[in-house]
Amino acid sequence: MEYRNVCIYGAGAIGGWIGTGLAAAGCELNVVARGATLNALRRDGLRLSHLDSTTTHAVRAESEPARLGVQDLVIIAVKAPALPEVARQIAPLLGAHTVVLTAMNGVPWWFFHGFGERWQGTQLRTIDPEGAIARAIPADRVIGSVVHASCTLDGPGHVRRHAGNKLILGEPVGGDSARLTALTALLTRAGFEAPVSPQIQKDVWYKLWGNMTVNPISALTGATTDRIMEDDLVRGFTTAVMLEAKEIGARIGISVAESPQDRHAITRRLGAFKTSMLQDVEAGRPVELDALVAAVRELGQLTGVPTPSTDALLGLARLHARTHGLY
């Protein structure tokens, strides 16, 4: 299987970072974009800066997916609140063999596809309440990924990579496949670290286990991660939330060997890091509380795990976001 025509749906920091690598690898790169990003991509191309160098790549950018037509690979790299709109618009990009790679944070709509013990096939109301996303983007089209890279935007269509260059890939049903092998080869050729996970949901959950706390706490307080970790009471609260999530994970088949304190040590090493959710609040963008926190609360209800700390975190962060028009 070959991926010649590739479309980035969501040319923000992560989507743009992935797109520049694929363009450099020789893919015909298309982008769905609007507003200032659309104008910048048409005028200046897609740019990536890292250290002291900047590369520029020509792309075809359109506001309407129908103008791009069927793609071999569609990479969805939007924040979760934008996903319902993507689902409404994506159909013209999808042919009989199109693969959809998701590069998003939080619990995805395909989480229980071929996975999850007795909860296999469960549709999470907090993620896809009417099933519209699953109908528009069936899980059997999807290859999941977990992003380990720090990227920001210097401006529309201009990505800056600070650290990390890894995309962990996996089939939702587990195991290997020809399309996964081909995608791994392409991303490796494009300069990414692209290890394959035998069960991508476990990698999704492990990343979520860390950022479901510091993201909303930073959004509430305006604090960088170092200040969150330095406060004994706040760090203790994050530990309580993480222990609830750890028990939920164990019941759906995801055992986390680390303790919250182990993960705190990793977060401390990031230094004065500004989370993506805090960046969204500062920019006046909707926050992805449902995928990061509300879904965990729903999973607690499904599995019978009490979640008082998660409930408190969700309630406070949701109220803050609603008060500022971000949820």
UniProtKB/TrEMBL annotation:
Entry keyword annotation includes NADP: yes
Gene Ontology cellular-component terms listed: cytoplasm
Domain Ketopantoate reductase C-terminal: 200-319
Reaction it catalyzes: (R)-pantoate + NADP(+) = 2-dehydropantoate + NADPH + H(+)
Domain Ketopantoate reductase N-terminal: 6-171
E.C. code: 1.1.1.169
GO biological process, one term: pantothenate biosynthetic process
Keyword Magnesium: no
UniProt keyword annotations, A-Z: NADP, Oxidoreductase, Pantothenate biosynthesis
Pathway: Cofactor biosynthesis; (R)-pantothenate biosynthesis; (R)-pantoate from 3-methyl-2-oxobutanoate: step 2/2
Any one GO molecular-function label of the UniProt entry: 2-dehydropantoate 2-reductase activity
Family: Belongs to the ketopantoate reductase family.
Purpose: Catalyzes the NADPH-dependent reduction of ketopantoate into pantoic acid.
Stated name of the protein: 2-dehydropantoate 2-reductase
